[in-house]
Design goal:
Distance between the termini of chain A: 34 Å
Mean pLDDT of chain A: 93
Number of strands of chain A: 17
Number of domains of chain A: 2
Radius of gyration of chain A: 19 Å
Strand order of the largest sheet of chain A: 15-14-13-12-11-17-16
Largest sheet of chain A: 7 strands, antiparallel
CATH architecture of the largest domain in chain A: 3-Layer(aba) Sandwich
Oligomer: homodimer
Largest interface: A-B, 23 and 23 residues
């Protein structure tokens, strides 16, 4: 068990943004919310997955909704803890730790806030090893965890508990609509599990990975190094393209930011042109009309000069960006996982081929 | 306390259809479901509101969703009882009786089915004295009942409990979306209350009224009387127009059947032309461009020859119909009620003027 300090927050947010593959919400806001907790004298305690006891009771908690909305409507912080507390009341038991949802943008920071407020530790790990757009795409649920009970809460005091659900896709479907009705953002708690189950289904140590990536980026900035190289040195993977964003199509539909980017190579990549499809997160790279990298492998954009992660809702024409591709964790590569997070799950008739690095 | 027999069902369904003012779902299906319960040997017990004890625990239960959908998707019967049971589990208490939602079409029969399955009585009365399209429009909630906890269940086994809600309009909003996601129909339980509260907020004896109306219609048919006159003899009110449907505009939006009818008078009403706006239920009559009868007073269409209620989803060009207008119960005429069920609540800039009979 260790504690997150204020100094950890900036690098962790940078690393989480990079692992977030363009989605997962705004890391800046999440970071401010976590900082606020520390400055209020609360503690953010983290445990390694190996420290989870078999009979611990864990819950997956975070924010649900479109990151585009979250910019305009800064989450108050109450809704995620309200969701957790609603589940505790429903179960008549207290949770002993929070298992993070995803390692992307805002939602990588939100569990820190929840843990601080509820005074319980969060686990160093998450259910995606990156960000994904839908609820059923967390390893805890992919590998047989219970989607119900689940709870959703908004900042007005509306709270619903999903008492029973057919499957995790139904949970996504029902809660997505409710989130939209709640104004586009809500606090979510789901996938209640014991410690033994969490230890085998969590993608471990991604909070540490995020911080290490962020530290490397900050060091590169300070020492005039190449931030992208610094990221890849920690996370693995390779730079797919260095270039410039030359086109962005984006629309918000059913709470998702969907669209397509075009980048054209510069320098040694001059003459190359790639397209990237996204649904909150970057999903697929096409080059010369052929898909070359797909989910669940990570496709992430960072600014060339600073290594700052670029989210799909803020990417704009003219940005100079490096496209980094990073192999996804092994837990996302099984046939069971690929049914839920592979290219076909996003409507692409493409077989997943693990990224060659 | 008395029991509903199979012979009661046909007249009650006819009367409920007439009080349903064009909405409330399909009385035929509800009747078949109630009959099925009786034939399975279960009992449908009814208590008068005066028989409710102060410390009885009541719940309002029925179906939520568009009647248009309910034609295609016959409710299985499990979802409404599932919703009630989910609330019982949530509260850790058993309900002693069911308070009906509305006296309209299918939803007037559904409480009989729930009572039979759960083996508890239903109260002779309801929360609308007619049908209305939205959840907050029940007297129990208008007069200060609790919209939460509430439960919604579908026939697949999805079940949600609304643990806390800002107000009854929020309950309508969140549950309406969820109902649509669930396929357009769901079982609902809400407005948990004690007996003392129920006795003062229920519109009493509308189940008996529905049966009496239906009996009068059946007697008129048998003795070649005028079915409309028979209805009015029991329910009060007057025949506004006898005529023919000459135009129907209808669309289904957000689970509601919305639209407008035109009727032209025949016989002594020849030369008159009226328009009726509906949102599931008939809301407003216009004649010569002026609103003449509005919600919450009852505007109901019956076939001229048989006195058979005509629902807004089945009304069609060429039907010969009597337009009956019936004063609404006093509990809907207070300023508190008119805020929720008066013309303004449906977007009309018209003051409610009680129907002159």
């Amino acid at each position: 068990m260790w504690q997150i300090t204020e100094d950890d927050l900036v690098p962790t947010a940078i690393g989480a943004g990079i692992l977030g593959t363009g989605g997962g919400g705004n890391p800046y806001l999440g970071r401010l919310r976590a900082r606020e907790q520390l400055r209020a004298g609360r503690q953010i305690r983290v445990i390694d997955p190996t420290e989870i006891a078999d009979d611990d009771l864990l819950v997956v908690a975070g924010g649900m909704g479109s990151p585009v909305v979250a910019y305009e409507k800064i989450p108050g912080g109450g809704e995620e803890t309200d969701a957790v507390r609603a589940l505790e009341r429903h179960l008549g038991r207290k949770f002993t730790a929070i298992a993070p949802f995803e390692m992307g943008g805002g939602n990588s920071m939100v569990p820190l806030v929840i843990g601080a407020i509820l005074d319980i530790p969060i686990v160093d790990g998450d259910g995606m090893g990156r960000a994904f757009p839908e609820l059923q795409m967390i390893t805890y649920l992919i590998y047989g965890g219970n989607p119900s009970p689940a709870a959703l809460a908004d900042e007005r005091g509306n709270r619903i508990v999903v008492d029973q659900i057919v499957d995790s896709k139904w949970l996504e479907r029902l809660l997505r609509s409710t989130t939209i009705d709640m104004g586009g953002h809500a606090g979510l708690a789901t996938a209640v599990m014991d410690g033994a189950f969490c230890r085998t289904t969590i993608i471990p140590n991604t909070l540490t990975l995020a911080k290490d990536i962020g530290d490397a980026v900050l060091a590169a900035r300070q020492h005039h190094g190449d931030p992208s190289e610094a990221v890849l040195g920690v996370a693995g993977g390779r730079r797919y393209l260095r270039g410039k964003v030359t086109d962005v199509e984006r629309r918000t539909a059913r709470g998702f930011a969907r669209g397509r980017l075009v980048l054209e190579g510069t320098g040694e990549d001059a003459g190359r042109r790639i397209e990237i499809d996204f649904q909150n997160e970057n999903l697929l790279i096409r080059e010369d009309g052929e898909p070359t990298v797909t989910v669940p492998d990570l496709i992430t954009l960072v600014t060339t000069d600073e290594g700052e992660p670029i989210t799909t809702e803020l990417v704009r024409y003219g940005l100079r960006a490096d496209v980094l591709v990073i192999p996804c964790p092994d837990l996302l590569k099984t046939s069971r996982a690929l049914e839920v997070v592979g290219p076909a799950a996003f409507g692409y008739e493409v077989d997943y081929r693990p990224l060659a690095v």
